[in-house]
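Now for a sample.
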Amino acid sequence: MKNKLTDLNNYLFEQLERLNDDELTGEELEIQLKKTKAVTEVSQNIINNAKQVLDSCKFMENAGYGWVGNKDSITLLVGGGNNEQASEPNNEDKKRMALNYFKEI
């Protein structure tokens, strides 16, 4: 399954090409318009989720934990890399992060 942001980008352009097909008429065009609407809605959710992941990583970095994940975290998000995961912070780490966050606001 292709599930990187680069794959999504490619799929969105493919859908745009299908919509731009001058031979589409009537029912075929309606089907593609409905499909495009669905693809757009799902794509926006995927993009919002990726932004949330990135914002979380930035929060962890600003809290003094360095970049969360391995050195290829961004590559993993947008495509390529490997599937190594960051270790989960323990409860003490989470408390310290929360305190640091609230000191800043």
In short: Confidence is low (pLDDT under 50) at residues 81-86. Residues 5-104 form one domain.
